[in-house]
Design brief:
The protein is elongated, with a radius of gyration of 20 Å. Helix content is 15%, strand content 54%. By secondary structure, it is mainly beta. A hairpin with a 2-residue loop joins strand 8 and strand 9. It has one domain.
Length: 148
């Protein structure tokens, strides 16, 4: 009897959780990597949505006017785009250089997004919450690996 009860509980749990997982959209992750003054910056934006409803995903990396920056890779479920804008004031210090990422997920529906940023120095930002169809602006500081 105990064995039958355990088996029945296992079947019920498996059925319940598999239906719950299928009830929402598909998990999508857009994960571009940038190189800023010799340091890797990995931006990861995740959301649960039907990929067919997502029109575009873009990342705009804002760096100091004298920074060296390039997009290294642009993997993702939906082909993301990346731009680098050298619009922040020039940085001449040693230490933590200001950097901003603006993430835009344009879709035909509204859903939550979460962006995390990691880099050469480890976790630069634990998580920033956002929403599709609205820009998510994430400000952080990057340890400058080179002097200008």
């Amino acid at each position: 009897m105990k064995r039958a009860t355990s088996w029945l509980c296992a079947v019920l749990l498996a059925t319940t959780f598999s239906n719950a997982a299928n009830a929402g959209g598909q998990w999508c992750e857009e994960d571009p990597e940038f190189l800023v003054n010799g340091s890797v910056v990995d931006v990861s934006t995740v959301f649960s949505a039907d990929p067919a409803t997502v029109k575009s995903v873009s990342f705009d990396l804002l760096v100091p006017s004298n920074a060296t920056a390039v997009a290294v890779s642009l993997p993702g479920t939906i082909a993301p785009t990346a731009t680098i804008s050298r619009v922040l004031p020039a940085y001449y210090g040693i230490g933590w250089m200001p950097v901003v990422v603006v993430v835009r997920v344009n879709a035909s529906s509204t859903f939550a997004t979460t962006t995390t940023i990691a880099g050469t120095q480890g976790g630069l930002l634990s998580a920033a919450s956002g929403q599709s169809n609205a820009p998510t602006r994430v400000q952080f500081a990057l340890l400058a690996a080179s002097l200008f």
